[in-house]
Amino acid sequence: MKKKIKPVIFIIALIVFIGLIYAGQVAFEHFSYSREKADLNDYYQLTDPTQAVLFVDDELKEEKATCFNGVFYLSFDLVQKYISNRFYYGVLDGILVYTGPNEIFTTSVGESVVTKTDGSNEDLGYTTCMQEGDTLFVAVKYLERYTDMSSQSFSDEGPARIRIYSKRGDELQVGNLKKKIALRKLGGRKSEIVSYAEGQVTVVEQMEEWSRVVSGDAHIGYVENKYIKDIAPASIEGFETEKLDLGEYTSIKLGTKANVGFHPIGGIAGNETVSGIISQTKSLNVIAPTWFSLSDTEGNISSYATNDYITTAHANGLQVWAVVDNFNNDNKPDTETVLSHASSRANLISNLIQKQSEYGFEGINVDFELINESYADSYLEFIRELSVACRRNGIILSIDDYVPMDFNDHYDLKEQGIVCDYVVIMGYDEHYAGSKEAGSVASINYVQTGITKALDEVPAEKLINAIPFYTRLWTTSGGELSSKALHMSGAENVISEKGMEMKWDETTCQYYGEATDSNGDFYQIWNEEARSIEAKLNVMQSAGVAGVAEWALGFENADVWDVIANYMAQ
Questions:
Q1: Percent composition of the chain: helix, strand, coil (DSSP 3-state, to 5)
Q2: Which of 137, 257, 347, 555 could link 299 by a cystine bridge, Cβ 3.0 to 4.6 Å?
Q3: Which tens digit of pLDDT belongs to each residue from 157-171?
Q4: Residues 306, 309, 311, 314: is their CA dihedral positive or negative?
């Protein structure tokens, strides 16, 4: 009987043993970590051998960098998106330009040489930028010379990768790995291995048990939280890179509130009106004659400047800011053609600086209007390059802009506010000659909104708001709407002739009047006079802007100068 029991016990023990082995295998399979490695080209979605994985501020980007012959490049679109919009691609000239506070740096596509403003050259030993199809690629090393960015690149342990910090000072969450450990595609033991990491990592996403991290050699994947310690915010210090000392953007200031009167010259004889124009003003400290205009596509300008005008202005304690525009010359040259070529930009700037040297005016005011978005980058590059020449020669640079709206944001007030001494908002033409409805030239809400929006981009100490010394008479005749601009005295005459009863409108902060002729023509006017001007000045005083400008001298009634003088004294 006992002999039969032993085999049964043995069989049971064997079954239990096999079960334990199986259970152990199941447990091992369940709790063990996969050693399978991920296909990194598939993981990083690389489709071309020249593509490189791109991290910006430790965020993995869908876009890719490019690696040619061991040198890392970014497409020009990515440069503008992630690094700086101050690089200018002169497509027609085949050049890449970077303009700093005091120098212009130019390199040609496919070349390794960079040229400075004075014509001196430096061979950097690598291709600064290259063209592939319709795309311009810029070497990351070249970008680092002029910006606050820094980078590290890697070509081992997988596909080429580059880690860019766009600027110093921003904070990231960092931690330290307790040991060398696998980064995984997903948060799970069975997920494939991307790479192995140790030391400090950037923690980009924290979950209950796993965190997504970026390793020091620019791989991204998941690590169990139990293997990360000392997670805390840290400031981006960047990497050691070769950088140029570009200097700082400096500005010339009047030292007091600006009161800039625009003086439409209209021809050489217009200069003779300056004494009479000045005599009726009060508290004016700058006069801006419309002297210069583009005359051809080579960057030449027509001029109405005279020494006698300068002498008279200075004798009356006024600075002269000479206006250059793109619309008053009879030739009507194409502005885009002028601004899109380095040679014509340089010629235009040289002509302006030569005129300043000849006549001794203190400032240049740029009034380029109807700039299309298609060449706005060329316009901004012209402003940058002109600012370098002005800064080197101690000339005040101001620029005229429309009231900021979504449709004109390509004028880039923020960049203007950096490179220019003053930005002048033309706080009028709310309703203009081609408007579909009658209305105010400059209602108080329009003025206030324009100043508020501009202050989002431009420092208050650089912002000047221009007010109108004119209004519009609106006529509805036979169902058709038309208008004409009137100086203040002309508006008074029309109001009297039409027998309009003028009533103060709190919505616009202007006197409004209307009348109907015997033939059925309907007239409307929102008048500009001392009280409406005072309301605008009160808004400007509250906003703390740098001053006021007027369009235009000679259009006003004498009493508006009393309210302007009161504003200037505050």
A1: 30, 30, 35
A2: 347
A3: 789 999 999 977 889
A4: negative
Q: Which helix (H) or strand (E) holds 201?
A: strand 200-206
- What is the rounded distance in angstroms from the CA atom of residue 54 to the CA atom of residue 8? 67
3-state secondary structure of 27: helix
Tokens representing 225 are 């939280």
Nearest to 236 by CA among 179, 187, 168: 168
CA distance linking residue 412 with residue 420, whole number of Å: 12
Task: Please give the sequence-ordered ranges of beta strands (E in DSSP) within 77-156, or none if there are none.
Answer: 87-90, 95-99, 104-108, 113-115, 121-123, 129-132, 135-139, 150-154
* Token code pair at residue 8: 């049964």
Burial 310-340 (b: 16+ CB within 10 A, else e): bebbeeeebbbbbbbbbebbeeebebebbbb
Q: Do 543 and 452 touch, CB atoms closer than 8 A?
A: yes
* SS3 track for 402-428: ECCCHHHHHHCHHHHHHHCCEEEEECC
Q: What is the rounded distance in angstroms from the CA atom of residue 83 to the CA atom of residue 165? A: 9
Pairing of strands 319-325, 292-294: parallel
Which has the closest alpha carbon to 38: 169, 143, 194? 194
- Answer whether 520's CB lies under 8 Å from 230's CB: no
The tokens of 92 are what? 């027609």
Give phi and psi for 53, each to the nearest 5.
-65, 135
H helix runs in 280-334, sequence order: 307-315
Question: How many whole angstroms separate alpha carbon 57 and alpha carbon 223?
Answer: 20
| Residue 466 tokens, joined | 């221009």
Give the pLDDT score at 22.
57
Pair type for strands 220-224 and 286-289:
unpaired
CA distance 495 to 476: 16
**pLDDT tens digits along 339-380:** 999 999 999 999 999 999 999 999 999 999 999 999 999 999
- Provide the whole-model pTM: 0.92
- Alpha-carbon gap, residue 560 to 262, rounded angstroms: 15
Mention every residue, 6+ apart, whose C-beta is less than 8 A from residue 321.
260, 286, 287, 288, 361, 362, 363, 364, 365, 396, 398
